[in-house]
Amino acid sequence: MTTEEMFSRDVFLLGVDIRLYWTVALFYGACFFAGIAYILSLKERTGKALTLGLKITAVMHVFLVIFRAYEVRRLPLQTIYEAISLYVLLTVFICLYIQKKWDKVHLPGVAISGIAFLFSLYNLLDRNPIAFTAFLKFQSKWFELHTCTAFLSYALFTVSFAIELCYIASGSKHLSKVLVTADKQFYELRHRLIVIGFSSLTFSIYVGMLWAHELWGLYWIWEPKLIWTLIMWITYAIYLHARSIGKWKERPASAFNFLGFSSMLMAFLGAEWLVVLLGTIKKCHLSL
Question: Which of 3, 114, 181, 239 has the most CB atoms less than 10 A away?
C-alpha cells in the first residue's frame, strides 16, 4: 500500500469514526431528554424508554470503540478523545448493570445519560480525533493497566454520584414517588461503588508511579493533573472515613461524595483547562 493510499484509508476511517460518534452522542442526548420527560411526568413507560435507549446506545458505543481500535490498530486508550469515550462507555455499563436489579428506579439513568451526552459533545467539539503513532511513553507494560484502572474508578465514582443524587432527591415530594422501590440496599451502593473505585484508583496511582519511574526515574511529579488526582484520592478517603462515623454517615458524607466527583472532573479535564488559563494569564501579563 502506497503512502497516498494509506492516507486516504486513514481519512476515510476517521470520517466514519466521527459520524458514528455523532450518532452515539445524539442517542445519549435523546436518552437525556427522555429522562427530563420522565422527571416531569413520572410515567413508568417513559422511564423504561430511557433505560432501553441507554441499552441501545451502549451497544452502539461498543461498536464505535471496536471500530476505533480497528482504525488506529491498537487499543484506543492513548488520547483524551479515546479516554473520554472509554470513560463514558464504562459509566453507562455500570449504571445499566445496577439497574438490572432495581429495574423500576430510572433516575440514575437521567444523570448518567446527561453526563454521557455532555462528555460526548465536548469530545466531538473540542478534542482532536486524529490518531497518532504510539509514543515511546505509551509503549510500557504499565500504561494500559494504569489507564484502564483509572477510568474504571472514574466510572464507579460517577455512578455513585448519580445514586447520591437519587438519595438527595428522595427528600423531594415529587421525586420520592418514583423512588419508593429504591430500598436501603440501593442507596448503600453509593458507598460500595466508592469502596471499589477507591481501591481501583489507589492501584492506578501505584501503577502510574511505576510507569513514571520507568519513564523519568521519578515516582511523582508535582504537576496539576497529579495534584488533583491526589486531592481526589484524599477526598474519597475522607468520605470513606465519614461513612464510619454515625453523625457523619448521611448528609456530611454526601457532601464529600459531591466534592470527590468535582475533584475527579478536575483531575480528568479541569487540570488541563487550568494550565491553559494560567498560560493565557501569563502571556497577557508579559504583553503589558
Answer: 239
Closest to 140 in 3D by CA, of 184, 78, 50, 73: 78
Reduce the DSSP state of residue 182 to 3 states and report it: coil
Per the structure block, which three cell numbers stand in for 83? Answer: 479516554
Convert the pLDDT of each residue in 147-187 to its tens digit.
899 999 999 999 999 999 988 887 777 787 777 667 778 88
Phi then psi for 223, rounded to 5 degrees? -115, 160
Cβ neighbours of residue 83 closer than 8 Å, sequence gap 6 or more? 77, 147, 151
What is the Cα gyration radius of the chain? 20
CB 28 within 8 A of CB 116: yes
Q: From 201, 188, 196, select the one nearest 234 (Cα to Cα).
A: 201
Q: Which three cell numbers stand for residue 94?
A: 455500570
- 129 vs 82: CA distance, rounded Å: 8
Residues 194-234 have pLDDT tens digits of 999 999 999 999 999 998 888 888 888 888 888 889 999 99
Residues 6+ apart with CB under 8 A from 235: 256, 259, 260, 263
Helical segments of the chain, H only: 3-41, 44-72, 80-99, 107-126, 143-169, 184-216, 224-242, 251-265, 271-287
CA nearest to 96, candidates 85, 105, 109, 87 = 109
pTM of the predicted model as reported, rounded to 2 decimal places:
0.89
The residues, any chain, with a CB within 8 Å of residue 181's CB and separated by 6 or more, are 102, 104, 105
Nearest 5°: the CA angle 176, 236, 160 is: 30
Phi and psi at residue 124, in whole multiples of 5°? Answer: -75, -30
